[in-house]
Amino acid sequence: MSYYVCPVCKTKNEEQRNYCLGCGTWLLSDKFPAKKLRKKNGGRVGRVIGGIVVILAIIGVIAYVKGTDIANIQPAAVQQQTDGYARTNPADLGVPVSGKVTQFDLLTRENERDFGLSVSVNRVIRGDDMPVTIQGGTLKEGHEYLAAEVTVNIDSAGTTDAQASISRNMFSIVSASGKDYPMTVFIHDNSVDARLYAGAEHRGWLVYQVRKDDAAPLIAFARDDQGRGGFWFKTNK
């Protein structure tokens, strides 16, 4: 039996899955294909040992969480942007916002990597005529699709040869009234998902469902787990 390893978050996915169980990445992308591996069949003994390992891992995670203040567990991306743009002062379309993002392993808070980068929302398209192929999700009544073309530039890396992992999960869209929209739309071509070294640029699309009467939702990048900070962008002129 085989499985796919997600190129973005490294989650192991069953062979029949097209989207990553961990982050929603399209696993059959030509540009960033998932790595297909074959499970080793260790028989009954192997299954027993595997079960013991899983139980010990769960116990370890529980012990770790119990010994940690949940409110102080940092997200996988912490940011500090330097251009003064915030939820109350979002950047216009086409205006890059510069800053720093620190990525690290969520549970262990190890393998920390700092990146200097800039992000811009270049253009926004609303309605049925989408520039990308939409996969999954039924359009809700009173809603329409909103597609945003985003450019990410990695200007510097604090660790030599470290790659920044850019994922659609680092972005979110917030209504004009201040409520997060759920991520219900997936695309498998020209996505914003990418792994980038310093000096690299990537341009891709985000697609959301928004209310038709919401004329000015905002896009946020790299907020913390309590919705604070982040790079903020307008979706209208």
Automatic annotation (TrEMBL):
<keyword id="KW-0812">Transmembrane</keyword>
<keyword id="KW-1133">Transmembrane helix</keyword>
<feature type="transmembrane region" description="Helical">
    <location>
        <begin position="45"/>
        <end position="65"/>
    </location>
</feature>
<dbReference type="InterPro" id="IPR029051">
    <property type="entry name" value="DUF4352"/>
</dbReference>
<protein>
    <recommendedName>
        <fullName>DUF4352 domain-containing protein</fullName>
    </recommendedName>
</protein>
<feature type="domain" description="DUF4352">
    <location>
        <begin position="117"/>
        <end position="215"/>
    </location>
</feature>
<keyword id="KW-0732">Signal</keyword>
<dbReference type="Pfam" id="PF11611">
    <property type="entry name" value="DUF4352"/>
</dbReference>
<dbReference type="InterPro" id="IPR029050">
    <property type="entry name" value="Immunoprotect_excell_Ig-like"/>
</dbReference>
<keyword id="KW-0472">Membrane</keyword>
